[in-house]
Amino acid sequence: MKCFYYFKHKIRSKAPTSAPELSNPASNSDITGSNLPANSSCSTVSGRSINDLYEEKSRNLRVFSLPELRRATSDFNRLLKIGEGGFGSVYKGTIKPVDGTAEPVVVAIKKLNNDGYQGHKHWLAEVQVLSIVEHPNLVKLIGYCTLDGERGIQRLLVYEYMPNRSLDDHLFNLAYPALPWQKRLQIIYGAALGLAYLHEELEVQVIFRDFKTSNILLDEDFQPKLSDFGLSREGPTHGRTHVSTAVVGTHGYAAPDYIETGHLTARSDTWSFGVVLYEILTGRRSVERNHPRTERNLLDWVKQFPADSKRFGMIMDPRLENEYSLTAARRIAKLADSCLVKSAKDRPKMSLVAEQLKEIIQIPDNGSPNTETTDSVDNEAADFNDKKPKQNAASEQLKRRVAQLAKLSEHVDGKRKFLIMQRAKEI
Ligand SMILES: Nc1ncnc2c1ncn2[C@@H]1O[C@H](COP(=O)(O)OP(=O)(O)OP(=O)(O)O)[C@@H](O)[C@H]1O
Ligand SMILES: [Mg+2]
């Protein structure tokens, strides 16, 4: 069976009314996220699945032709390329509004790699999920393009354009100014609201499965929006505790229990959220290949600096230059620890995480926290190098970190995607 057999091209006119569908109901469950047959693949009392909801809402999406998107991007000109991920390249482009009257609209166009059925699966999952969601912290899908030709399949997605790129760029790329503390908190709070909505507020539960900094895009006001729903799946149904699935995601973010068993739950996203919380505090990636061995794995490294210890301040991102509340930072670390507990069911649900973040954001930055930061960093530096004078130790430590970061930035490239693809054990 050819990869594109699963896709039934339904476009009969240029009007943006059609939506991709699956010719084979059995393949439905594969694509929308459950291993159950399509009509039992529903996570709600209403009994409707993502696919059912999508059938209803897909009309809101615009269907583009390939020539239209070629024109929009000057034939996918590499000067207009704004990013590249594991699934394809992203271009900045301009499209005409449907009525043709208003100004052209700036959009981001993702052209998926030609990798047959896998590519189609990711594309379809993204179209289906994004057509049924509506939330200020989720990226808006404007439309799509699909073409099954002799030279293979083409799948494209057209999104609202996010001018401030991703949180990944602002946290880890030294070409960008350091992201201030309050902005970090606002961004992560918005991201928590986005996940809580997917998990708890929709008629079906959606598990995101690839939560990480590069999938948190930032609009003109630095409001975060989650993007990349190609790996998302429908949550467990009919009182089941998990979905049994192949393991996919990104190294450094995927929950260990999920990697081990293939059992996916919304709390797998909670784990990834905990990892990102530590990235926000430290300005370090979850996996840093160029760091000394003991510091390569962020979660192992931060364990040496517990949230309640005097040493805690040592993990904080030196680019913050002490402009943060240590009290708030400790609470964030504790919240992260609760997201990172071994047993998935003991991790908090995302609405609770969001609630706690809302409280933490209100802790003022000024006053005692900065003083406390300096003291604790001093103490810690003294622990590490007791031959140095106390007050110099902290700044030495910070200087070393900044130099290390500068060195690391030379190695930063956009292709850190490691897809884990293991066959999972079935229930
Ligand atoms: N809607 C958008 N508006 C503006 N820039 C975008 C948009 N979508 C993606 N980008 C840019 O393109 C980059 C690549 O995105 P993409 O999702 O393809 O890969 P990634 O997130 O870096 O990696 P992965 O494939 O592992 O998710 C993003 O980091 C972002 O900078
Ligand atoms: Mg992405």
TrEMBL record:
Give the matching InterPro entries.
Kinase-like_dom_sf, Plant_Ser_Thr_Prot_Kinase, Prot_kinase_dom, Protein_kinase_ATP_BS, Ser-Thr/Tyr_kinase_cat_dom
> In which residue ranges is the amino acid composition biased (Polar residues)?
20-40, 365-374
Where is the protein found, in the record's own terms? Answer: Cell membrane
Q: Does the keyword RNA-binding apply?
A: no
Top-rank taxon of the source lineage equals: Eukaryota
> Where do the record's region annotations for Disordered lie?
16-40, 364-398
Q: Which residues participate in ATP binding?
A: 111
Q: Which residues form the Protein kinase domain?
A: 76-361
GO molecular function term, any single one = ATP binding
Q: Does the keyword ATP-binding apply?
A: yes
Arranged from A to Z, the UniProt key words for this protein are: ATP-binding, Cell membrane, Membrane, Nucleotide-binding
Q: Do you know which PROSITE patterns this protein is assigned to?
A: PROTEIN_KINASE_ATP, PROTEIN_KINASE_DOM
Would you tell me the protein name for this molecule? Protein kinase domain-containing protein
- Source organism: Nepenthes gracilis (Slender pitcher plant)
